[in-house]
């Protein structure tokens, strides 16, 4: 097993040079934020991630969570680690100060989130869902609900969940059947069953606050008839103390391919008369409110893709340095060397490294845009950044998670046969990564949202603005000397051309042939992810070039930045043209067979 060390140098570079930490520090409410504060937080987070969470990753995978008579027990060390996590104030990092949070920017929280997820993804899922529940209550909860639940959720004393799907519904939330019966006193009896509820039951905290989708008796059919309810595990008294056990119980946990230590629960509401809940916001607007949680969760799942890629890369790199096998190609009679000297191993490691860095750059830039969308003084700037965030959330979620499966699989390949042996630990990264393209909406769901709501509905307006920014970087590359920058410019130019071609097809055909356009939705998401990642890698290379010219900083780090960006341009950006072709021309081959011909 390899150790985990947060890539703090790259995190700092991306935060400062690409995501604009100095600009984020100037936003209203961020007056106490500084580079020095961000660095101190990253260093402390790295200590906790590498010293406490990472050693439990293997323990959790082997031991898993266990269920007995409605109660779930987490793996050895989980409870103590969570207590340390809470006592150190980590759950409150980005929380609203009104409810006990530290109010730090999303950009800083994003970097810290990456560490938790790289060190121990199964552990990180619990605070991730709590953050989404907090966000939904912050924006749509009543003053009473906020006062009752948020202080202890922000502090981490209580955790939160999101309860959407049911056995018969899957991703089709229009099929939700859970009922909410009004009791005449402002409360509701919740009756139904929910599946796939992450940390729906556990022993880490004394209370769990469930946000549950359910239907009122007079609700219209479909998604327009869904409401959102707060249903705590234990009812809360007026003085904040815990009251009676609510009728919300875990009837089983799933046995999964990966993330064994994260309990995935089946929850029954109302087996003994009905769980007591209160309505969040207005009736029949539950799905709209749940999407507040969903967008938070989708970004966080994208971060899981990045984090697992980084962890798999570190693991494979260490093995490649330690494993001595064969002689170096072209050195006849030479000594045995580590496999890092072999050309294809270097190619695989560079693929893992470059994709991880591209994902980090894109995700952190989106995190910073979220800060500007929420806090910038200029309404126009807020709107422009929110549009960018909305466009990129499905890309961060879909592209990063699909990458993580490929990167973790490549990590096993670097290990050779030893990668297929569980004791090396490389297989766990792939098993854990495999859920991420499914979590919080499959890649196709993200892609359909991207082409429909984010491209076709606004006739490509937001992406046109992003393309213009990409063209600006392309011009900067053209002005830079050297073969590496020429290669990057050519790759970015072709990639942006490919995106423009695909967008034009989507806008022209979405309304008249949605099925044909939908065939290319996932290829388009991957295309936009690759080109957006290449855009950020090119920006990084240009910054590195300027730093080297000025004689500033760590020359070896900046040199590696340029080489890694060149590799991404040559090996990853080169996929763009083929993906665009599939978007524009791929429908016929996918749709022509009859059902009987499959």
Helix segment tally: 19
Strand count, sense and barrel status of the largest sheet are: 8 strands, mixed
Question: Which outline best applies?
Answer: globular
Low-confidence stretches: none
Structure classification: alpha+beta
How far apart the termini lie comes to 43 Å
Report the oligomer: single chain
| Overall average pLDDT | 96
Task: Report helical residue fraction.
Answer: 55-70%
Per DSSP, what share of the residues sits in E-state strands of 2 or more residues? 5-15%
Structural Rg: 24 Å
The total beta strand count reads 14
Report on the structure:
- There is one protein chain.
- This protein is α+β, with helices and mostly antiparallel strands.
- It has a domain at 442-589.
- Helix content is 58%, strand content 12%.
- Helix 8 (286-322) runs antiparallel to helix 9.
- 50% of the residues are buried.
């Amino acid at each position: 097993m390899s150790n985990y060390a947060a890539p703090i140098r790259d995190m700092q570079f991306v935060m400062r040079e690409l995501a604009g930490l100095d600009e984020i520090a100037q936003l209203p409410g961020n007056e106490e934020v500084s580079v020095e504060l961000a660095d101190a937080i990253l260093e402390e987070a790295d200590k906790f991630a590498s010293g406490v969470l990472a050693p439990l990753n293997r323990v959790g995978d082997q031991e898993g969570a266990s269920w007995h008579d409605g109660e779930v027990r987490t793996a050895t060390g989980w409870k103590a680690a969570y207590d340390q996590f809470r006592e150190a104030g980590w759950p409150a990092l980005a929380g609203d100060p009104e409810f006990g949070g530290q109010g730090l920017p999303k950009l800083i929280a994003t970097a810290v989130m990456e560490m938790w997820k790289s060190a121990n993804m199964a552990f990180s899922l619990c605070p991730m869902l709590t953050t989404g529940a907090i966000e939904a209550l912050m924006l749509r909860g009543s003053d009473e609900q906020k006062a009752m639940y948020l202080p202890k959720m922000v502090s981490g004393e209580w955790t939160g969940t999101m309860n959407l799907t049911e056995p018969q519904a899957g991703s089709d939330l229009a099929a939700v059947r859970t009922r909410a019966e009004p009791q005449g006193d402002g409360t509701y009896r919740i009756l139904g069953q929910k599946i796939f509820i992450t940390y729906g039951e556990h022993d880490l905290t004394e209370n769990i606050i469930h946000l549950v989708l359910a239907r009122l008796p007079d609700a219209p059919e479909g998604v327009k008839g869904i409401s959102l309810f707060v249903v705590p595990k234990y009812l809360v008294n007026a003085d904040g103390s815990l009251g009676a056990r609510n009728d919300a119980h875990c009837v089983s946990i799933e046995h999964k391919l990966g993330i064994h230590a994260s309990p995935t629960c089946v929850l029954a509401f109302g087996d003994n008369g009905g769980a007591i809940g209160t309505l969040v916001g207005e009736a029949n607007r539950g799905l709209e409110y749940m999407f507040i949680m969903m967008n938070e969760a989708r970004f966080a799942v994208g971060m899981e893709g990045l984090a697992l890629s980084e962890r798999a890369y570190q693991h494979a790199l260490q093995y490649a340095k330690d494993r001595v096998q064969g002689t170096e190609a072209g050195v006849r009679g030479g000594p045995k060397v580590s496999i890092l000297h072999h050309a294809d191993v270097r190619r695989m490691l560079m693929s893992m490294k470059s994709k991880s860095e591209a994902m980090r750059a894109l995700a952190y830039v989106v995190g910073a845009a979220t800060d500007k969308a929420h806090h910038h003084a200029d309404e126009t700037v807020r709107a422009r950044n929110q549009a960018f965030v909305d466009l990129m959330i499905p890309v961060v979620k879909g592209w990063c998670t699909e990458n993580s499966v490929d990167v973790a699989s490549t990590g096993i390949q670097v290990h050779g046969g030893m990668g297929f042996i569980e004791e090396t630990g490389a297989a766990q990264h792939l098993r854990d990564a495999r859920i991420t393209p499914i979590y919080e909406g499959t890649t196709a769901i993200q892609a359909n949202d991207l082409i429909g709501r984010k491209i076709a509905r606004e006739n490509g307006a937001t992406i046109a603005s992003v393309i213009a920014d990409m063209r600006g970087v392309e011009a900067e590359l053209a002005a830079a000397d050297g073969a590496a920058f020429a290669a990057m410019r050519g790759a970015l130019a072709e990639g942006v051309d490919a995106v423009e071609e695909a967008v034009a097809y989507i806008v022209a055909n979405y309304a008249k042939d949605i099925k044909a356009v939908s065939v290319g939705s996932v290829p388009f998401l991957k295309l936009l992810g690759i080109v957006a990642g290449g855009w950020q890698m090119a920006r990084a290379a240009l910054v590195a070039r300027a730093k080297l010219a000025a004689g500033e900083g760590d020359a070896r780090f900046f040199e590696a930045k340029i080489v890694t960006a060149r590799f991404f341009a040559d090996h990853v950006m080169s996929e763009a043209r083929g993906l665009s072709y599939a978007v524009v021309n791929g429908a016929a081959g996918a749709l022509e067979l009859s059902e009987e011909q499959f």
